[in-house]
Design brief:
Layout: H1 2-25, E1 28-34, H2 41-60, E2 69-75, H3 80-92, E3 97-99, H4 104-116, E4 121-123, H5 130-133, E5 140-142, H6 147-160, E6 165-170, H7 174-190, E7 194-200, H8 209-217, E8 222-226, H9 229-241, E9 247-250, H10 257-263, E10 271-275, H11 282-295, H12 303-320, H13 325-334, E11 337-339, E12 342-346, E13 352-353, E14 357-363, E15 366-369
Parallel strand pairs: 1-2, 1-3, 3-4, 4-5, 6-7, 6-8, 8-9, 9-10
Antiparallel strand pairs: 10-14, 11-12, 12-13, 14-15
Helix pairs in contact: 2-12, 3-4, 6-7, 9-10, 12-13
């Protein structure tokens, strides 16, 4: 019995040693949840590609902490009801970090699941104020400024263009309404521009003539819209086809070449806020070149933000010397990282330090930066 007991003990020790070795040699898993199909895939696919590119770069150099990086991409089409399932699946896969989600609504739906599982998540694009202002998600970080900062840029643009009366519309979602409300609050506080209409639209509707008639009846000189490019393209097209000669100003959900491709000639002259253009920097140029070589085309929306997100996460794991949640979170909040967005850091709430918004306008079929 003694010999049998000793053999069992030795076997247990061998198994434990094997598990420890497997743990050390196991890949570092990075989950990439977002819209990878549907109308908003143009936002999600660039993020997957950014993570794939950086995973390959790091893996060629030996990975992180001697471990290879494995990318687990999951599609939730920017639908909150799918995001919770995707989050649960990634938790079940025992991911070490998340780059995503893409839309604010899906991010909010999933973030509590990652929080409870103690998994750090960095979004390249979710801007809703509540995600950091609420204090509910200590695991949440973002590589893009939040809506209140984006709204300052939009409100400043409205004033600089000399408008005195504007209508503000939104898609009723976490992202669109957050942006629209912030713009409304700023304009009303400053008092130089009157908000003649504040209303939500029905996402997916074919005809927006009723709401546009309300805009016209309110005497607005411009429309400020909070939402994404599918609705924006319909609104702009219907406005111009009905000879409604007023400006259209929107957010980074519209500052996407897909909007121009869908709205075509009706996109000309549209304004939108977006992340500051850092594409001329050395790191950004290298990332863009790698994307073109790997995928045969220029990267899409939020690609550079996603590059900055994954670069920051991998460097934080390297600094921490572990994938432990508390250690990685502390590393993110205690360091500055050289990225495609420049040198950035993260506040105690998870908001980025050193990331700005800029106004753009469609000119000759391309978004160009607007100087105030």
């Amino acid at each position: 019995m003694k010999i049998k007991g000793l053999l069992v003990t030795l076997l247990a020790l061998v198994l434990l040693a094997g598990c420890a070795k497997d743990s050390k040699d196991a890949p570092i898993k990075i989950g990439v949840p977002g819209a990878q199909s549907g109308d908003l895939a143009s936002y999600g696919i660039p993020t997957v590609r950014a993570v794939e590119i950086y995973a390959e770069l790091w893996n060629k150099k030996g990975g992180v902490l001697g471990r290879q990086i494995q990318v687990l991409a999951e599609d939730e089409s920017c639908k909150p009801e799918l995001a919770t399932n995707v989050a649960a699946k990634l938790v079940g896969e025992k991911v070490d970090g998340i780059i995503g989600h893409i839309c604010s609504g899906t991010t909010k739906a999933a973030m509590g699941i990652y929080r409870d599982a103690k998994i750090v998540a960095i979004t390249p694009s979710a801007t809703s104020n509540d995600l950091t202002d609420s204090g509910e998600y200590p695991n949440f970080f973002r590589a893009i400024a939040k809506d209140s900062f984006q709204a300052v840029t939009a409100a400043k643009l409205v004033s600089s263009l000399g408008f005195k009366q504007v209508a503000i519309l939104h898609d009723k979602g976490d992202y669109g309404k957050s942006f629209a409300t912030a713009v409304k609050d700023i304009l009303e506080k400053e008092g130089n521009v009157k908000v003649t209409l504040f209303d939500g639209i029905t996402v997916g509707a074919v005809d927006y003539s009723a709401i546009l008639n309300k805009v016209g009846g309110a005497g607005a000189e411009a429309v400020v819209f909070g939402g994404y490019h599918p609705e924006a393209s319909k609104l702009v097209t219907q406005m111009k086809k009905s000879n409604m000669d007023i400006a259209f100003i929107s957010d980074d959900g519209v500052k996407d070449d897909t909007f121009i491709q869908v709205a075509k000639e009706f996109a000309e002259g549209v304004y939108a806020t977006g992340p500051q253009d850092t594409s001329s920097s050395t790191m950004a140029q290298e990332a863009i070149k790698l994307h073109e070589e790997k995928y045969g085309e220029k990267p899409g929306a939020f690609f550079l933000n996603a590059c900055a997100a994954i670069e920051s996460l991998l460097k934080a794991i390297e600094i921490a010397g572990t994938t432990d949640y508390d250690a990685v979170r502390k590393a993110l909040q205690s360091n500055k990282f050289d990225t495609t967005l420049g040198k950035i850091g993260f506040s105690q709430t998870g908001d980025p330090i050193g990331v700005e918004f800029t106004p753009f306008q469609v000119v000759n079929g391309k978004y160009v930066e607007v100087k105030y």
